Automatic annotation (TrEMBL):
It catalyses: L-methionyl-[protein] + [thioredoxin]-disulfide + H2O = L-methionyl-(R)-S-oxide-[protein] + [thioredoxin]-dithiol. GO terms for molecular function: metal ion binding; peptide-methionine (R)-S-oxide reductase activity. The lineage of its organism: Bacteria, Pseudomonadati, Bacteroidota, Flavobacteriia, Flavobacteriales. GO terms for cellular component: cytoplasm. It comes from Croceibacter atlanticus (strain ATCC BAA-628 / JCM 21780 / CIP 108009 / IAM 15332 / KCTC 12090 / HTCC2559). Its EC number is 1.8.4.12. One of its GO terms (biological process) is protein repair. Residues 11-131 form the MsrB domain. The keyword ATP-binding does not apply. This is peptide-methionine (R)-S-oxide reductase. Its cofactor is Zn(2+). It holds the Pfam family SelR. Keywords: Metal-binding, Oxidoreductase, Zinc. SUPFAM superfamilies: Mss4-like.
Length: 131
């Protein structure tokens, strides 16, 4: 990952601060199994923050049920997300990273059902919810 972030830590520091699942997702671009994340069917009013650095990434009013098995949002907080082309798994996707620490959040797709047309497909382990 890039080192041009506001928060730069060694991988050893990240391992100490994050759970094994969070480390795998946020630092190694892993993915949690669909329909297993705690925020998939979570619809309280509040804010979703990066689990690694607490940067606000999404508001609850942008969350919707997509049926994909992961928390989905149709918009992100301006400047909170970095977008990177991802050519893994034999396809071209757009990876979303926390712009503050470089943590892998998930991917964004142009197939959302709302007026933005976006579906930010997010790993629950990469975010925390604040009321």
């Amino acid at each position: 990952m890039s080192t041009n972030y506001n928060i730069n830590k060694t991988e050893e520091e990240w391992r100490k601060e994050l759970s094994p699942e969070q480390y795998h997702i946020l630092r190694e671009a892993g993915t949690e199994r669909p329909h297993t994340g705690k925020y998939n069917m979570h619809f309280e009013d509040g804010e979703y923050h990066c689990a690694a650095c607490n940067t606000k990434l999404f508001d609850s009013d942008s969350k919707f049920e997509s049926g994909c098995g992961w928390p989905s949002f149709d918009n992100a907080i301006d400047g909170a997300i970095e977008y990177k082309q991802d050519k893994t798994l034999g396809m071209i996707r757009t990876e979303i990273l926390c712009a503050n620490c470089g943590g892998h959040i998930g991917h964004v797709f142009d197939d959302g059902p709302t007026e933005t047309g976006q579906r930010y497909c997010v790993n629950s382990a990469s975010i925390n919810f604040n009321k």
